[in-house]
Amino acid sequence: MQDVADRAGVSRMTVSRALRNHPEVSAARCREIARVAAEMGYKANPMVSALMANLRASKNRTGTEILAFLTTHPDSQRWRRIPILNRFFTGAATRASELGFTLQEFCLPHSGMTEARLSGMLWARNIQGILVAPAPHPGYRLELEWEKFASVAIGFSVTHPKLHRVANHQIHSLRTALEEARTLGYRRLGLVMEQEHDRRVDHNWEMALLEFQNRIPKRTRIPILMPESVHFDNFRKWFERHRPEVILATTTKARSQITGWLKRLKLKVPGDVGFISLNKDRIDEDTSGIDQNPELVGAAAIELLAEQLYHNNRGLPKAPKVVLIEGCWVRGKTVRTVF
Questions:
Q1: Angle at 54 between CA 49 and CA 57, to 5 degrees
Q2: At the topology level of CATH, where does 170-292 sit?
Q3: Extents of the domains making up the chain
Q4: pLDDT tens by residue, 258-304
Q5: pTM of the full predicted structure?
Q6: Cα separation of 268 and 262, whole Å?
Q7: Closest CA to 280 of 301, 257, 249, 304
Q8: d(Cα 70, Cα 151) in Å, to the nearest integer?
Q9: Strand 328-330 and strand 288-291: pairing?
Q10: DSSP string, 203-247
Q11: Closest alpha carbon to 29 in 12, 14, 11, 44
């Protein structure tokens, strides 16, 4: 590193900071020093770099450095009533504390709060990292002064800008649920969801089912029930036409809704029809399905955010990372062995 400093006519510290894109070194100087280092064949020792990153991360970190948990729901109480969002926050807050940060909620729709004002407020408080919570609806656009911040989104509902993301691996989650159902002896597997729920996950539910159906006999394939809104009439017509042996659904409230509709059709769960939730909450012990491990999703999002802060990376990424966390199958009382 000293040789690079001598050739570039700067201090060793300046070289170290420039190669980490430190904000105290201009972008032009960073590019020039990187060019000199490349010409000289300089390569950082990865073990030393890791050690120094850890020292810089822990230096003077007492738990008072704040990261923003940015919500776009109408108010802070709305998202707290959604179990999976609470679990995202819990996992993220716990991991943030372990790394020496404090995670604090900021609600964009608050009265008088604009995106420009929020950007200025965060910057004035020296909050440099933003964890973007899932939005109420898919296709959400968020215009902040992104060049000032490191940022990570949970899930796919915020579509603009293209941020680093962490999410459950929905394709694997649905595949796991389908394979577990077939292991139990179910052959006619039906997926029920509204179109918005599939858009929220970048169409991963639909893609996973179509891929799975390509590997099973045509006579057992059931088309997805995926209207703009699922109600009893379209559910009844779909069910009576295709006669699924087990129904998979994507929301936590779907069990009570679908169970009620099946009751109106004189059918019982699991005696007549099985039920599987693709978003099983831990407090609902009776339901079979996939626990998406949202605490681990939140923790991984903090780790990805901390990585950017440690390396002084700010602004929108040229090639966003997508980190996928596996869910796990939990057997409950809403399926049975049918062999």
A1: 125
A2: Rossmann fold (3.40.50)
A3: 2-44, 65-168+295-327, 170-292
A4: 999 999 999 999 999 999 999 998 878 899 999 999 999 999 999 99
A5: 0.83
A6: 7
A7: 249
A8: 10
A9: antiparallel
A10: THHHHHHHHHHTTS-GGG----B--SS--HHHHHHHHHHH--SEE
A11: 14
Task: Grade residue 44 by pLDDT with cuts at 50, 70 and 90.
Answer: low
- Which three-class secondary structure state does DSSP give residue 167? strand
Contact between residue 172 and residue 327 where contact means Cβ atoms under 8 Å apart = yes
* Contact between 274 and 288 (Cβ < 8 Å): yes
Q: Give pLDDT, residue 53.
A: 53
Q: Which long-range contacts (CB under 8 A, 24 or more apart) does 238-245 make?
A: 238/190, 238/192, 239/190, 239/265, 240/265, 242/188, 242/190, 243/188, 244/188, 244/189, 244/190, 244/273, 245/186, 245/187, 245/188, 245/189, 245/273, 245/274, 245/338
Same fold for the pair 65-168+295-327 and 170-292: yes
What pLDDT was estimated at residue 48? 45
- Mean pLDDT value of segment 320-330: 97
Domain 65-168+295-327 sits in which CATH superfamily? Response regulator (3.40.50.2300)
- Cis amide bond preceding 244, omega within 30: no
Distance CA 124, CA 103 (A): 17
* Model pLDDT, residue 22: 65
DSSP 43: -
Q: Determine the Cα–Cα distance for residues 102 and 66; give it in Å rounded to an integer.
A: 5
Two structure tokens written together for 196: 């918005």
| 162: three-class secondary structure by DSSP | coil
pLDDT at 56: 52
Question: What mean pLDDT do residues 323-333 have?
Answer: 97
User: By the 8 A CB rule, do 105 and 118 touch?
Assistant: no
Alpha carbon 307 to its chain centroid, in Å, reads 16
Are 201 and 235 a contacting pair, CB within 8 Å? no
